[in-house]
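Worked example 2:
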Amino acid sequence: MADSIQVTRSELEAQFSSLCRSFDDDFKSALSSGSLAVFPGFCDVHVHFREPGFSYKETVRTGSMAAARGGYTAVCTMPNLSPVPDSRAHLDEVLDPIRKTALIDVLPYGALTVGEAGQEGADLEAMAPDVIAFSDDGHGVQSESMMRSLMERCAKLGKIVAAHCEDNSLLRGGYIHDGDYARRHGHRGICSESEWGPIARDVKLAKETGCAYHVCHISAKESVDILRRAKAEGVNVTCETGPHYLTMDDSDLREDGRFKMNPPLRDRSDREALLEGLADGTIDMIATDHAPHSAEEKSRGLEKSAFGIVGLETAFPVLYTKLVKPSVLSIERLTELLAWNPRVRFGIPLHADYSVWRLDTETAIDPDDFLSMGRATPFAGWVVNAECLKTVCRGKVVYQK
């Protein structure tokens, strides 16, 4: 977690090619026969491992086990913890279980503001050497002047601001998308402007401050348009979306907490715009926003369940089955989105990291089989065509079926 590590795509690919050449002849034969496939270790820049503070939902150990099963060898953990890593002392409490129990590379974010409350800037300078970037994930920074100040400080530190974009004044008690399903079933909706409004504000600030800016979990077509224009103007901005936003929309909703996440599943037109954003390069990476909760917290229906679903163990199987097999995306493009692009943007090296998959199989997603402590997934019961057999991180086997 050194400051401002520079990682290039060509360097990563060369390292992976060298690694593949070192495989033994039997493994090479299996790969060439098509019965197995090997990928560079995936990298998820947006996960929640809940420790310290909420270890009844997930721990660093169980979260990293789930990640390894999903082919991930590096993840970036969000700071909505207790204590929030907003100072050096609080960050040390976050780093302790990572150093003691992580099976893969776990790289924490530092909070942008004290307690993620948006009122006072956190001690960014003291945390900078040991965080991957800064974010108030779970909370949008409501004040433009505060965000400008934070971006100016992060620009000086050479650190990315990863923003959860949400305008609280537009939420109005909503909890699913403000669309057809909400109207037909009497639910309060969250409008898309609550997401794209702050993105438009922050893009302007990033252009003015020169800060490296990353937008978390985009879900709306307007967000794609804003970011496409920003990139054309040369703004230093990247973004992510999640597997669920690419494969589902609000017509798939059910009266079940496993379909509740923030931002919510939106309209079919939003999903189509996200897929267009993947195709033209507007969207840089796919992140799961793996957000485990207890069974009780997810058993209260759409209105009262906690926001968040798990995704590390299902991401590649779902994306391969729903996007690659029907030729929506190439396997090379999916590898960019899951491995190369997040590592390049966040400066995360590839060590002796890879995963081995069987792609000629059918497996039903069963939450009871998860290694994560979280079980809430909208993909339960889906039949997928990819099964992870082994994941290796830094040359060590961290998952094997």
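Residues 25 and 31 are 10 Å apart (CA to CA). The two ends are 30 Å apart (CA to CA).
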